[in-house]
Amino acid sequence: MTLELAAAKGQRMTQPAQSAHSPLSIRGLTVSYGQKPAVFSVDMTVPPGAMTAIIGPNGAGKSTLLKAALGIVKPLSGRVEVFGTPLAAQRSRVAYVPQRASIDWDFPARVIDVVLMGLYRQLGLLGRLRASHKAQAMDCLERVGMADFSERQIGQLSGGQQQRVFLARALAQDADLYLLDEPFAGVDAATEKAIIAVLKSLREDGKTVVAVHHDLATVRDYFDHVFLINTTRIAEGPVDEAFTAETLQAAYGGRLATAQVDQLARALG
Amino acid sequence: MSGAEFVPISLPPLLIGIFAAVACALPGNFLLLRRQALIGDAISHVVLPGIVVAFLVTGVISTWPMMVGAAAAAIVAVVLIEAIRRLGRIEPGAAMGVVFTSMFAAGVLLLEQSDTSSVHLDVEHALYGNLESLIWLDATGWASLWDLDALAHLPPELPRMAITLVVVALFTTLFWRPLKLSTFDEGFARTLGLRTDLLGLALVIVAAVAAVAAFDAVGSIIVIAMFICPPAAARMMTNRLEHQVGWSVLFAVLSAVGGYVLAGYGPLWLGAQDAVSAAGMIATISGLILALTALFGPCRARSGAPQDA
Amino acid sequence: MIADALLLQLGYNATLVAIGATLLGLAAGAAGTFLFLRKRALVSDAISHATLPGVGLAFIVMVAMGGDGRNLLGLLAGSALSAWIGLLCLGWLVRRTRLAEDAAIGAVLSVFFGFGIVILTVIQTMSSGRQAGLESFLLGSTAGMLRADAAIIAIGGAIIVALIVLLRRPMTLVAFDADFAVAQGLPVARLDLAMMGLVMAVTVVGLKIVGLILIVALLIIPPVTARFWSERSDRVVLLSGLVGGLSGFVGAAVSASAPNLPTGPIIVLVSFAFFVASLLLAPGRGVLAEVLRHLRFRKRVHLRQGLLALAQGQPIYEPLTLRLLRRAGLARADGVATETGRARAAKALRDERRWQVVRGDQAYEAVAALYDGLRDIETVLTGDQIAEVDRVIGRPQGVPA
What we know:
The complex is a heterotrimer of chains A (269), B (309) and C (401).
Chain A (H helix, E strand, L loop, with lengths): L4 H9 L10 E10 L2 E11 L4 E5 L6 H8 L7 E6 L2 E2 L7 E4 L13 H7 L2 H4 L7 H13 L15 H14 L4 E5 L7 H16 L3 E5 L6 H4 L2 E6 L1 E7 H4 L2 H8 L5 H11 L1
Parallel strand pairs in A: 3-8, 3-9, 6-7, 7-8
Antiparallel strand pairs in A: 1-2, 1-4, 4-5, 9-10
Chain B lengths: L2 H31 L5 H20 L4 H25 L4 H22 L9 H6 L19 H4 L5 H18 L1 H9 L1 H6 L4 H23 L1 H16 L5 H29 L8 H19 L13
Helix pairs in contact in B: 1-7, 1-10, 1-11, 1-12, 2-3, 2-4, 2-10, 2-11, 3-4, 3-10, 7-10, 10-11, 11-12, 11-13, 12-13
Chain C lengths: L1 H5 L5 H26 L5 H7 L1 H14 L7 H25 L4 H25 L10 H4 L7 H30 L1 H6 L4 H40 L5 H25 L5 H19 L5 H25 L7 H9 L11 H22 L4 H4 L14 H12 L7
Helix pairs in contact in C: 2-8, 2-10, 2-11, 3-5, 3-6, 3-10, 4-5, 4-6, 5-6, 5-10, 8-10, 10-11, 10-12, 11-12, 13-14, 13-15, 15-17
Subcellular location (chain B): Cell membrane
Organism (chain B): Sedimentitalea arenosa
Membrane topology (chain B): Multi-pass membrane protein
């Protein structure tokens, strides 16, 4: 995959139409806050059963792209398809982990309450909360190593623990497509390990994972695909092809600090 | 006190006070957590212009047109606040301040301009109601509770407030999960397909209905105090939403009973002759409860921002 | 009659009230701006409602001491004291408990007001309390105002205005950026206190004219109105004072011109009229300007995206895009580009590639930050620079195809 706009699009257009629909496909998406587009005319096709990182400098529109894909912010133009149909028909197949900082953690709820929120589509308005639901939620907490904390108030957790609770809630949704907004931001090393292990196990189960990611040094270790964005799409493809010094230069321009470049040089070998 | 005295004079205002307090406290819990606590304040201020306009349109002082007028004014106010906040990019507090003061001013002006001085419609009544006057003349004692003829002459505020409470409680129960979800994490709720905007509007409308019904019975101060004080005090007692709502109901009932009793008998105990405003006293008691929980409640302190381990 | 009133021809008292209302509006507008800029506008609501118990208690104390309970200075002193206690409670709740400021405001205002009503009903039962007329503090009343009272209001307003003029620089700094003000060595805590003191003084002085429920309007509406017209905080303070003063003057004059026109509500409604006009018509932040800007912006986005799609032979999904292209004569109804359309599309694509080069090149860092998908590259680069960029595009090794 290359920087060349026309060539890249041409290539994607030749993808066989009869193959399984992409878990997430975005066409011509423009989102703006005020008078400056945060995301401009972006196309994106997420490959199924893989882990994709959305990468770009601060303010490049990474989170906005995710939020527009989920219908949380309203785009100025463009369309989003999830497994080949509009999002509304596929809500139960999509799980979302928002940025930890976007939440009021002083809310009166326990860890288990938050995870049970992930079962909302199963429970509905008035469905009885059964022991099996609780067991399901506990199982999800177990997978992220937080089972011992189920009765804690969420405000009393560390940042990493809160992030794991959010991941457990997403697991409870039992979706096919997982969208995560900066899951590794401000978490401890143990949490990062635990989260990546869970994400990889999801991939093994054939699920698709898309995460906004910050740390360029770990991209190669964690992800199969990358999507580089800086307001517009810069590059997209398997890590080996699309995550190169050239694409990074194009995405980050002068903003790629020297330290980061050194770090990358090592990461890229 | 004997039933012959208690049932006609004290029971109806006591029940109306309790129903009003609980009906306001229930939505108040969610408004508090959504940082919309002052919506109650705004709603209770715009009730006055609502009833004045209703009176000017219909030309009669009767309850239903006025309640409709008040509810309509509350909805107009909420829509205006939201519109001004978005269109003018103004912080919600200031947008609220602009709308409810202007509408209140318009209400007072209309009141002065119209010939309502002859009828019982004045600002003070709107502000602090007259809980004490809601008595049940046909009751003769506890037996009257089973006497259909007597029941037919209950003060109409009582069944109205009871129905309002049932509506509010039903709404809270029915939409408990979506309310909790969207209050905690609106973005996530939207990815589940919940219409968080409509839910937010519904919550405010239910709050407005509670405010209007309660205002009619007890004036607008209790309304503001009951929206905020019992839920705020309850928040100091627990870290679980379910328990918080339970505590808030308890505190609302305590305020209503304590306020009514103190207003009626407190002055007598102190040797004075006349009772003081029950609505004002109920608000005062709810404030005292809040003060106590703020000083001693087990969960009074913020959990604070978590440290990144 | 209104003309007479506006020209202060209605007698000594009305004139004094008009001057007092003008000064009050001026002071309220300016003091309210500091509160508004700190995003604490509704604190004034708590302050004003918290004055009520003070008014009542002051009356009781003055009567108990054998004086006239209606002495305005005494009542105002009482109201200031209880407003101050309300502020202390508010601050304590926010600092020491988990309550957010809005909840604390609501709790303080409703509880103090409720307690105030209890006191008022106590006064009504006192033998000297029947004609106390303290209810007039709820909504204000200038009818039958004593000459001395009018003088107190005018003098009080003048003093507050003078204090604001004196303190405007440091308070503007604090309101704009408290952290910076701390770094500058300003006593921020004390200035905050002074700000609250001023707001309280405005409230207390305004009790008699506009009443405690509506004084909030004078502290909030003028700043919000002024904010539409300027991005500079010192100008917002000035404009807000002007709006407030003008509202006070016009309101008092109109109210004096006919019966049944209560001063407080009229002043509030005049300032609300200023607000509505500004909300709709202000050139920068006004709604009309904003809507026009957004429509233009949306058109630019869609045209640009449409041209890029045309250039790359992609289908156009959005009906709006196609409509705009057709109206601009760039495409036919079936989505095929016209002659001009093809030329413009080619240019758009070429510009997009130029931008890619610019954004990937450290030498153009400053320019690259301007990229938003819409800006014409000619507006940020010289002809020579563009030629340079084009040479890079032409080179095969820079951009693998």
